Amino acid sequence: MGFFDLFSSSEKKKQEKETLDKGLDRTKQGFFSKITRAVAGKSTIDDDILDNLEEVFLTSDVGVETTLKILDRIQDRVKRDKYVGTEELNNMLCEEITDLLAEDTPTTSSLEDFTVPESHKPHVIMVVGVNGVGKTTTIGKLAFRFKEAGNKVMLGAADTFRAAAVEQLEEWGKRADVPVVKQKLGADPAAVAFDTLSSAKANDIDVVIIDTAGRLHNKKGLMDELTKIRKVMQKVVPDAPHEVLLVLDGSTGQNAFEQARQFVAATEVNELAVTKLDGTAKGGVVIGISDQFKIPVKYIGLGEGISDLQVFHKKEFVESLFGNK
C-alpha cells in the first residue's frame, strides 16, 4: 500500500467517524443529558446514582437484562476500586458496555474492508427482516460497498410476494450498477435463489446477496421457507449461505428486540444490521440486542445515501455514544 493509499484510507476513516458522531447525535444528546442529571450534585457513585442510571438505560431502550448487567459491573468496579468519583463514570460505562457487546465471528470479521475470502466463491449473504426495516435499502448499500471494493456482485429477488420488493431491489441494483435475478410475482423464493447462485457461478461473481420475504405472521411458515431456500442454495454452493444477516430498525426500540427474537428462533442468524440510527434517540437498542442475543452487529445505517452504511466497530460506537475521544 502506497502513501496515497494510506492517506485515502485515513481520510475515509475520519469521514466515517464524523458520520457516526453525527448519526448518533440524537441518541447521544439524550444519553448525555440524562446521565448528567443522574450524577448532578454527587461526588461519589452511590445507590441513588445507580438507580438514576437504571432509568437512563431503560428509557434509552437498552433493555432490562442488559441494564442490570451494566449496573452489576459498575457496582463491582466501585467495590474493587474503593473510591470512584462521578467524573470517571463515563469512561467506566464505556469500558463495561464495550465489553458486553458481542464480538465478530471469524467469518464476518474477514469482510471488514468488503473483500471476499479466497476460500470460497461466490460469497453468499442471505438477508432477513420484516417489511419496512430498511432491508432492501441495506442490500443496495451492501452491494455498492462490495462493488466499490472491487468485487463482482449479484442480487437475488427472493421476496416474490410483494411486487414493490422486486421493483425496489431492481432500483437499488441500478443505483449500485449490479445485476438482479428475478422471476414473476409469486414465484417460489427458493427457485429464485437457485437461479441466482447458478448464474453467479456461471459469471464468476464474487458476492451474492439474496433478499427474502419480510413476513412474521407465521413463524413456522417463515422457518420452513428460509430452510428450503438454504437447502436449495446448497445444491449450487454447498456451504451457502455464509452469512445470514438480520436487518432491524433501530428507531423501533423494544419492537426490534421482539423481531430479533422471532427471527433467531426461525433461522440461524449470525449477524445483525441496525438501520435508521440517524433519525432516532433509541440507539441504545444496539447495546441490548447485541448483548441479549450474542450475535454481533455487523453494519449500522446512518442515512439514506448509498454509501451511508458502516461496518460496526463496538469501541468507536460506544465512545461516540458517550462523546469520548
Describe it for me?
This protein has 325 residues and is α/β, with parallel strands linked by helices. The chain has 13 helices and 8 strands. Strand 7 and strand 8 form a beta hairpin. Helix 2 (25-39) packs antiparallel against helix 3, helix 3 (47-59) runs antiparallel to helix 4 (64-81) and helix 4 (64-81) packs across helix 5 (89-100). It is elongated and about 65 Å long. 44% of the residues are buried.
Shape: elongated
- The class by helix and strand makeup works out as alpha/beta
Number of helices: 13
Please give the alpha-carbon distance between the first and last residues. Answer: 28 Å
Query: What value does the Rg take, in angstroms?
Result: 21 Å
Largest β-sheet summary: 8 strands, mixed
Strand element count: 8
Strand content: 5-15%
What is the average of the pLDDT values? 86
Helical proportion?
40-55%
Low-confidence stretches: 105-110
Q: What are the secondary-structure elements, in order, as H or E?
A: HHHHHHEHEHEHEHEHEHEEH
Strand order of the largest sheet: 3-2-4-1-5-6-7-8
